[in-house]
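STRUCTURE REQUEST FORM
Protein name: Flagellar hook-associated protein 2
Source organism: Salibacterium lacus
Requested output: structure tokens
Priority: standard
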Amino acid sequence: MDSGMGSNTNRITGFASGMNIDQTVSDLMRAERQPLIKMEQEQMQMQYKMEDYREMNREYRSFSTSIFDNMFMRSSLSAKQTSSSNESLVSASAASDAQSGTFTVSDVTQLAEAASVQSSSSITGGSGGNVDPEASLADQFDDYNEGSTIDFGITTYNENGEAEKKEFSFEGSDSLNDVLSEVNRSDAGVSAFYDQQTGNISVTRSETGVFNEGGNEMAFEGDFLTNQLNLNSFADTEYRGAQNAEFTLNGIETNRRSNTFTENGIEITLNGTSAENGNSASLQVSPDTEGIKETVMNFVDEYNSLIEKTNDKLSEERDREYPPLTDDQRSEMSDEEISQWEEKSQSGYLRSDDILSNATTSMRRSLYDTVNTGGSFDQLTEIGITTTSNYQDGGKLEVDEDQLEQAISQDAESVYQLFASDGENAEDKGLARRLREQVDQTVDNISERAGGPNTLDPSQFTIGREMNQMDDEISDFERRMTRTENRYYDQFTRMEQAIADANQQAQQIQQQLGGMGMM
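Status: completed
Returned output:
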């Protein structure tokens, strides 16, 4: 608030009294405004506290998201690893729900192949030379002109052996490349290619394997395909039929349409035949102990980091001798002095805070109750995770990595359930799930007090309402200061006027006395 607040154009200077009225009023108002400075500092302290709360809320939200993304996902805590004794014959990868065990693939007599057909002869245009794939069909084939409509159909077969026909329509102004691109982009299930060097077209079924038992895998209809592109005959020299992969799996002779297929959550890929790559391969599926351990260790590290940050806030010193700086104070200090002052004035606002204190207590409690896993482990300590013995750590966790690895190898599913199990009753919920509930409750409690990232209206949280109330008090006080300043000026104005009147009277008396002396 400057000294001109509520200025009055009728104010006079200290001409009569010789006083600097503006400076005198300014000095008086500086004393009057001391309560206002304290209110503004108090409001700034509310701002600091709100920012500290929101900083911690971001930490808790981030941890909650990490729990969801990692500890609830089977792909993180139930990951499987596979090994093959003969990668050149068979390789594999396992989904998280795959059963651990050994699988044997042997006697791979043939790999799956896709059906394909090649034009029976080179494609020639009206000039007798090979077709230019960029030129219009009308310029290449005598049977078409620019306005011609060219229709044809391609039939393939689905996994149930049912015919599915895809129809196409082009104009004479389109090019061969336009035709092939459209066919390849469509869901006809084929891939077409034109070799300009030889002038031949080849069409290959997109999927390997036999879908039309006893018949061709593709059929072409329409003059353009059969006569112009010479896909008119499936003679042995132009057509290569599809075949299924044939092999033995765990002693059972079987076949698949694709060389990559899934059995019991294991994706198996046949890389060659037994004649060329050895008769058999043994596939071993086991828990990815190292990967699961890394997930658990990351969880512990993030938990410990959150506990440390929370405890730091709870124990941070609050130095009340360093209130927020006023503008006048800043103007008299160096940048380094301001920085050092603000470091002290902005610390300690969450010291011994009830929300954060309750959070640490509830989080610790949530990790040490038993869980109905139905497996080998129902407590965190049983897989090698305990609270550190140093009380100054404030409840941090430490891990016996050897015991954790052993637990994962022994019963990875139980380790997963220990963290991520879900159920209506508390004892059926995994430790990470319980912990996340406590963390989310803390987020809600902080948001209720200090607002969240999407809270725009200050009246929706406690500190915001307090700051609004302080705004009102500051506005009221400023109005009072305006009235006070005006009152001071009014008083000095009257004083100046009285002095001026007195001076005038004295001057008149002096003049009168002087006149009498001359008589």
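Reviewer notes: The mean pLDDT is 89. The radius of gyration is 44 Å.
Form closed.
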